[in-house]
UniProtKB/TrEMBL annotation:
Residues 232-411 form the Helicase C-terminal domain. The keyword Mitochondrion does not apply. One of its GO terms (molecular function) is 3'-5' RNA helicase activity. Coiled coil: none annotated. Its EC number is 3.6.4.13. Residues 694-718, 731-741 have a biased composition (Basic and acidic residues). SMART domains: DEXDc, HA2, HELICc. Residues 694-741 are annotated as: Disordered. The lineage of its organism: Eukaryota, Metazoa, Chordata, Craniata, Vertebrata. Keywords: ATP-binding, Helicase, Hydrolase, mRNA processing, Nucleotide-binding. This is RNA helicase. Signal peptide: none annotated. Belongs to the DEAD box helicase family. DEAH subfamily.
Length: 741
DNA sequence: TTCAGGATA
C-alpha cells in the first residue's frame, strides 16, 4: 500500500483540533443547552458535520437519548459516520452508526446516528415524539430536500408542544438546523427567531469571470454545449497547471461536448500551444449518474504527469461527489430539473438556469485544495436577469401525494396550514388530497382510512401501493411485487447512443415484449424480472438483452423489501381479503386498474388518446411501449407521462370500460377542500351520510359514458378549484346561519 | 416513431 492511500485512511488527531469550528466548541454546546432551536451556518470545510455531534456527545447529550444527524444523501450519511467513528475510536455501528435504506449499521449502543432524512421521517411514523432522541440535527438544510422540509415543519411543532412524563420523554428535544448558505434569517424566523451560530469556513478563494457568451435572449439551450467547449479549450491553453471541471446538463450533452473536445484537441495540437510548459496534453472524462462505476475510477485518480484532466459532468459533481485537484470550473449555467406542471397535471423535465447560490456552489468546487478560477459562459446580465437567488425547493416542484399521506398519518389533518418553510401552491396540495381520496387512502372528510395506514408503510407512490394491496388481498401479490419494484428503480432498458447498437437493443427488447405473451407493459416488466432472476447468470442475461444490470439488481432488493413489509402487514388481523373469479391476465389488469384508474385514457383521433382525469390532455403511446402502433385499443391505463416532442405515456396496459366505469365518478365527485380538513370540526357524520346519498343518486343519473365524460371535463377545468372553494364556503356559511340542518 | 438531471424510504 502506498503512502497516499495510507494517509487517506488514517485520521490525523491534530486535524479535528485545527478545524475552524474547534474554537467555538464551548459556545456551541452552551447554545444547544439553552435553546430549543439553533441554526448553525458555516461553509464547507468548517467541520460542522463531523464535529458538532461529537461535541454534544462529549458534553453528555447522549445520556438521555441518541444524537440523530440527518443527511439528504446516502453516501454522505455513510462516509461521515465512518469518519466520526474513527475520530472517536469506536467500530462503526457501536457508539457511532448510520442507517440508510437497505443498510442499517446501528445498534442499541449507538449514540451518534447519521441517517438519511427519509429514514428519520420513517422513524417519526413509528415514534412521533422521537422518544429515543435527545437531539436532532438536520444537516444540509440549504439543499431543501423534500424530506428535510417536512422534518423542519414537524420538528417545529414537536418541540413547542408540552412534553413530560406521559409523552415518554424526560427532557425536551433539541433541534439544530445546519445550513451552508446565507439565507439563515429565514430559518431563524421560522423557529421563532432562534439564535444563529456562524462558523467561518476554510476554503481557498475562487476568482469568478463572466465570459458573456450566453445572454438573457439565448433561451435555446443547445448553444451552451458549443460555448462550454470553447471556453474549456481556451483556458487549457492559457492557464497554468490544474484540472478542469465542466458543468453540463445531461448525458447526451456531455457526450456531445466530449466528442467536440476530442475533435478540436486533435485538429490543433494543444500540447504545443499551452502557456504552461509542464502541461502537455488533455485527458477528457465524462461523468454522469447512470455511467457504469468501472468507468468512473479514472475520474478520481490524479492524471499522468504532464496531462491536464478535464471532467465533463452533470450536477452530480456539485452535490454528491468531490474530485480532488480541480482548479478550474467551466459553468454552463443550466441544470435539468423535473417540474410538476399542475395545469396539465404532468411532470416535465426541463433545462432551466441555475440559481445564484447553485452557481456559487459550483464555483466553490475549484477552491477545495488551492485558489481556483471559475469561468461562467453567461453574461453578468444573464446572472442578474435570469438566475434566481435560490433554487425553488423540491416541495414546491414535485407531487406531494406520498408526503401528504405521511402527514395525515401523523395526525396533521389540516395539511394546508402545516408550517411549511416555503408553502407549496395550494392546488398542488389539493391535487394530492384528491389522489389520496381516489385510491382510498383517505375518506371524504380527509381522515386516513385503514387502507391508508397500510399504504403509508410502503416506500412507493400511493397508486402503485394501492394496486399492490389489491393484489395482496386477492392473494396474487407475486404479480405486483416485481412490477412495483421495477417501477421504482431507474429505467431498465438500455438505449445505446450508437445507431447500430441501438437497433440491436431494440430487437432484443421487442423479443422480450413478444415473449411476455401479452400486450401489457406491466407484464413485460414482470417477465423481465422473472426471467432474469431465473437465469444462471443474471448479469450475463442482462448484457445479452440490453438490460441495466445495476437497475435490475436494485429492483431485486426493492422487491425483497416490499415483500417483507407486506408479510408483516398481512399478519394483522384486519388485513383485507377478497376473491376474484377470472383469468390470470384479467386478475393482473384489474389490480392495476384499482391503483391506476386516475391514469385512464380513451382512444381519440387516430392513434392519440385523451386522458379522463379531467384535464382531457391529448397523449401518445411512447414508441418503446408494447402497445405502440396497436390499433385495437379503446381504454387504457398508464404509469407515467413524459413530455418531450409530444406528450407520451409510458408503461401502458389495455383495460375494459366495464372495469373502470364504476371508478370514474370518483375522479370528479369530491370537494378537495373538505379533504384538507380545513373545517374538520364542522363536518358531521350525518352531513357526510347525506352528501354521499346525494352523490349516489347523482351517479345513478349518469346514464351514458359520453354523458359522464362531458361532465367530468366541465367540472375539472381550471376553474374547478375556485368553484369548489366557493361551494364549500357557501355551505359553511349556510350552516352557520342554520339553513342547513 | 423515442432521449432518463440529481436524490430518497
Amino acid at each position: 500500500m502506498d503512502k497516499r492511500n495510507k494517509s487517506l485512511n488514517t485520521v490525523d488527531s491534530w486535524a479535528s483540533e485545527n478545524l475552524p469550528i474547534s474554537q467555538h466548541k464551548e459556545k456551541l454546546v452552551h447554545a444547544v443547552r439553552v435553546n430549543p432551536f439553533l441554526v448553525v451556518t458555516g461553509e464547507t470545510g468548517s467541520g460542522k458535520t463531523t464535529q458538532l455531534p461529537q461535541y454534544l456527545y462529549h458534553a453528555g447529550f447522549g445520556k438521555d437519548g441518541k444524537i440523530g444527524v440527518t443527511q439528504p444523501r446516502r453516501v454522505a450519511a455513510i462516509t461521515v459516520a465512518q469518519r466520526v467513528s474513527q475520530e472517536i475510536g469506536c467500530s462503526l455501528g457501536r457508539e457511532v452508526g448510520y442507517q440508510v435504506r437497505f443498510d442499517d449499521c446501528s445498534s442499541e449502543d449507538t449514540v451518534i446516528k447519521y441517517m438519511t432524512d427519509g429514514c428519520l421521517l420513517r422513524e417519526i411514523l413509528a415514534d412521533p415524539r422521537l422518544t429515543r432522541y435527545s437531539v436532532v440535527v438536520l444537516d444540509e438544510a440549504h439543499e431543501r430536500s423534500l424530506n428535510t422540509d417536512i422534518l423542519l415543519g414537524l420538528l417545529k411543532r414537536k418541540v413547542l408542544q408540552p412534553q413530560g412524563g406521559s409523552s415518554g420523554r424526560s427532557t425536551p428535544l433539541k433541534v439544530v438546523v445546519m445550513s451552508a448558505t446565507l439565507d439563515t434569517d429565514k430559518l431563524s424566523a421560522f423557529f421563532g427567531h432562534c439564535p444563529v451560530f456562524t462558523i467561518p469556513g476554510r476554503t481557498f478563494p475562487v476568482s469568478e469571470r463572466f465570459c458573456g457568451l450566453i445572454g438573457p435572449k439565448d433561451t435555446d439551450s443547445t448553444v451552451y454545449v458549443k460555448e462550454v467547449v470553447k471556453v474549456a479549450l481556451d483556458l487549457h491553453t492559457s492557464e497554468m497547471a490544474g484540472d478542469i471541471l465542466v458543468f453540463l446538463t445531461g448525458q447526451s450533452e456531455i457526450e456531445k461536448a466530449c466528442d467536440m473536445l476530442y475533435e478540436k484537441a486533435e485538429a490543433v495540437d494543444y500540447r504545443y500551444d499551452v502557456r504552461d510548459s509542464s502541461v502537455e496534453g488533455l485527458l477528457i472524462l465524462p461523468l454522469y449518474g447512470s455511467m457504469p462505476t468501472d468507468q468512473q475510477r479514472q475520474i478520481f485518480e490524479p492524471p499522468p504527469k504532464g496531462v491536464r484532466k478535464c471532467v465533463v459532468a452533470t450536477n452530480i459533481a456539485a452535490m454528491s461527489l468531490t474530485i480532488n485537484g480541480i482548479r478550474y470550473i467551466v459553468d454552463s449555467g443550466f441544470v435539468k430539473q423535473l417540474n410538476h406542471n399542475s395545469r396539465v397535471g404532468m411532470d416535465i423535465l426541463e433545462v432551466v438556469p441555475i440559481s445564484k447560490s447553485e452557481a456559487q456552489q459550483r464555483a466553490g468546487r475549484a477552491g477545495r485544495t488551492s485558489a481556483g478560477k471559475c469561468f461562467r459562459i453567461y453574461s453578468k446580465e444573464f446572472w442578474e436577469k435570469c438566475m434566481p437567488e435560490y433554487m425553488v425547493p423540491e416541495i414546491q416542484r414535485t407531487s406531494l401525494t406520498a408526503v401528504i399521506l405521511t402527514l395525515k398519518c401523523l395526525s396533521v389533518h389540516d395539511v394546508i396550514r402545516f408550517p411549511y418553510l416555503d408553502r407549496p401552491e395550494e392546488r398542488f396540495i389539493l391535487a394530492a388530497l384528491k389522489q389520496l381520496y381516489q385510491c382510498d387512502a383517505i375518506d371524504r372528510r380527509g381522515h386516513v382510512t385503514r387502507l391508508g395506514r397500510l399504504m403509508v408503510e410502503f416506500p412507493l407512490a400511493p397508486g402503485l401501493t394501492r394496486a399492490l394491496l389489491k393484489a395482496a388481498s386477492l392473494g396474487c401479490e407475486d404479480l405486483l411485487l416485481p412490477v412495483a419494484a421495477m417501477l421504482s428503480v431507474e429505467n431498465i432498458f438500455i438505449r445505446p447512443g450508437q445507431q447500430e447498437k441501438q437497433q440491436d437493443a431494440e430487437t432484443e427488447h421487442r423479443q422480450l415484449i413478444e415473449e411476455s405473451g401479452s400486450c401489457n407493459d406491466f407484464a413485460v416488466l414482470l417477465g423481465v424480472f422473472e426471467k432474469c432472476r431465473a437465469s444462471d447468470s443474471p448479469s450475463a442475461w442482462c448484457r445479452d438483452h440490453w438490460i441495466h444490470w445495476r437497475a435490475l439488481k436494485s429492483a431485486f432488493n426493492v422487491e425483497t423489501q416490499l415483500r417483507e413489509i407486506l408479510l408483516r402487514l398481512k399478519q394483522q388481523r384486519d388485513f383485507p381479503v377478497e376473491t376474484f373469479d377470472g383469468s390470470r391476465s384479467e386478475l393482473f389488469r384489474r389490480c392495476l386498474c384499482t391503483g391506476y384508474f386516475a391514469n385512464v385514457a380513451r382512444r381519440s383521433v387516430g392513434r392519440t388518446f385523451c386522458t379522463m382525469d379531467g384535464h382531457g390532455s391529448v397523449v401518445h403511446i411512447h414508441p418503446s411501449s408494447a402497445l405502440f402502433e396497436q390499433d385495437q385499443l379503446d381504454w387504457i391505463i398508464f404509469h407515467d407521462v413524459l413530455v418531450t416532442s409530444r406528450v407520451y405515456i409510458r408503461t401502458v396496459c389495455p383495460v375494459r370500460y366495464e372495469w373502470v366505469k364504476d371508478l370514474l365518478p370518483k375522479l370528479h365527485e369530491v370537494d378537495a377542500y373538505e379533504l384538507s380538513n380545513v373545517a374538520r370540526e364542522e363536518v358531521t357524520d350525518e352531513e357526510v351520510a347525506k352528501w354521499e346519498a346525494k352523490e349516489t343518486a347523482k351517479r345513478q343519473a349518469e346514464v351514458s359514458a359520453e354523458d359522464s365524460l362531458k361532465k367530468m371535463e366541465r367540472r375539472n377545468d381550471d376553474t374547478s378549484v375556485s368553484e369548489a372553494r366557493a361551494r364549500y364556503l357557501q355551505r359553511k356559511q349556510e350552516k352557520r346561519q342554520g339553513k342547513v340542518p
